[in-house]
Specification:
- This protein is of the alpha/beta class.
- It has one domain.
- The protein has an eight-stranded mixed beta sheet, with helices on both faces.
- Strand 4 and strand 5 form a beta hairpin.
- The radius of gyration is 19 Å and the shape is globular.
């Protein structure tokens, strides 16, 4: 695993915050399900632009349009799931799922050729050892230079990019996850990578992920002291208000109620011990 602890200039990072950090913030599953209660209605021309590519067939692009959604900040994402992950977006048929796979893999091929910088975000229940990741979000960005990792100057609006909202409870989702996270050609930008990487490497239930992450940059280190990590909420308080305008407030998400049913049961460490150890 290659993990780059890169210190990026805070002033420059603040200027590009809207492109580096908060498309991911708008992708918490709770926010996404509330904000996207209806399928995103995008202009045909915009969808064609987002889905165009040398390796994407017209048939594939046409079918996956039904699975495009908008985040809270109007960023376009393709839902990668075999079931209904987002309210108002139906589950794909078997044919659509195959075309969706081909389309996503074509985009990943292009991302690898272009050596893109990729905003990466994960959500789940208690990420880290013993927790469960449920979704992954990936979004290409031009905010950081891929050659020297320097923040690029702010010049107008970032070109439209298509992100992926990936269901990690599906086999296709895990396949996409491994393809992106294990790629040395794609640099992943994560805010607070420790717990996410632990889950990616060690998560065994409900299905083993067995991901070996490569080329990861922890953006949180750009704001933190060597002995203490700065929380995102505290960091955002120091950012000019115009750069976070429209950013959903984290307090609107009732995490306790969301996780209170405790549908998932994770094995305790003792359950993995040999039986004779229980009986002396």
């Amino acid at each position: 695993m290659v993990s780059h602890a890169v210190c990026i200039d805070r002033e420059q990072l603040n200027k590009r915050l809207r492109y580096i950090i908060y498309p991911c913030l708008a992708l918490c599953p709770c926010v996404q399900l509330r904000q996207c209660s209806q399928p995103a209605v995008l202009e045909t021309r915009r969808m064609d632009f987002l889905l165009r590519g040398p390796d994407v067939s017209e048939a594939s692009a046409g079918l996956v349009k039904d699975f495009l959604i908008l985040s809270s900040l109007k960023t376009s994402f393709l839902v990668v799931s075999s079931c209904q992950l987002v309210a108002g977006t139906r589950a794909p048929s078997e044919e659509e799922l195959c075309l969706q796979k081909d389309t996503v893999m074509s985009f990943i091929d292009k991302w690898e050729r272009d050596r893109v910088m990729m905003i990466s975000d994960f959500e789940g229940e208690m990420p880290g050892h013993g927790g469960e990741l449920v979704t992954a979000a990936f979004l290409p960005t031009i905010a950081v230079d891929k050659d020297n990792l320097a923040c690029l100057p702010q010049v107008g609006q970032q070109p439209a990019a298509l992100g992926l909202l990936v269901d990690l409870r599906s086999s296709l989702g895990v396949l996409v996850l491994k393809r992106v996270m294990e790629s040395k050609a794609i640099t992943k930008l994560i805010w607070g990578a420790d717990a996410d990487l632990q889950s990616l490497i060690f998560q065994a239930l409900p299905a083993p992920l067995n991901v070996q992450p490569e080329t990861v940059i922890d953006i949180q280190l750009a704001y933190s002291e060597p002995t203490r990590r700065l929380g995102m909420q505290r960091m955002l308080e120091s950012v000019p208000a115009n750069l976070v305008r429209g950013l959903p407030c984290k307090e609107q998400i009732d995490f306790d109620n969301f996780h209170s049913p405790q549908y998932a049961r994770h094995a305790s460490p003792a359950e993995s011990l040999p039986c004779h150890l229980y009986h002396g």
